[in-house]
Write the structure tokens for this entry.
Amino acid sequence: MKVVENLKRINQQINEACQKVNRSIKEVTLIAVTKYVSIERAEEALDAGIVNLGENRDDSLLEKWEVLQDKPIWHYIGTLQTRKVKNIIDKVEYIHSLDRESLAEEINKRANQKIKCLVQVNVSGEESKHGLSIEEAMPFIESLSKFENIVVDGLMTMAPFTNDEQILRDCFRRLNNLREQIQKMNLEFAPCTHLSMGMSNDFAIAIEEGATMIRIGTALVGEEE
Ligand SMILES: *Cc1c(COP(=O)(O)O)cnc(C)c1O
């Protein structure tokens, strides 16, 4: 399938989900996750009108960045090893996977300007998933005030791998509630505007529950590698 065709279908689904809950489509940023595909396929996505690209490994991001440079807005969405921070820090607009203080410290040290970070939360508590628990997230975010280059621009989660709509909805709702609590604290360094949640199989539900960034790989650009 051509990316333009997938994009058309996904945009329709985004539209329907927004209409259902009276949200504007402008509130939802579509991130094309290109981790499974070639540079050519990523270029096809940009030609189709995609603006935001997501990668989950530093080497694959760098490989694509060499060619595409700052044509797209880059999102780093994967687990980030502290020693890899310096490789990506001046190339990405958002880091979606801030999950520990040592990582915040390194980002803060390497950054030449404020970096927009999303704190990764493991809402479901599944052992296979990275991120802080709901309970840990608030004190963690408060502890970031000392890092002048860190902006907590939102929260990110990966929902459990299930088709059970209620489980998915519950996961997204809990992240939205957490965001609300953080926003109420009015922390200057933590506007916490964004909810990065929703992937190929659950993005419509995520939008209904307040997602402002959805990360779509398979359904949009496919998996060719
Ligand atoms: C791979 C990945 C995605 C995209 O997953 P699809 O199911 O292919 O849409 C989204 N978010 C993260 C963090 C990923 O690693």
About this structure: The domain at 3-19+27-220 is CATH 3.20.20.10 (TIM Barrel). Strands lie at 29-33, 52-55, 73-76, 94-98, 115-120, 150-156, 194-196, 213-216. The radius of gyration is 17 Å. The mean pLDDT is 96.
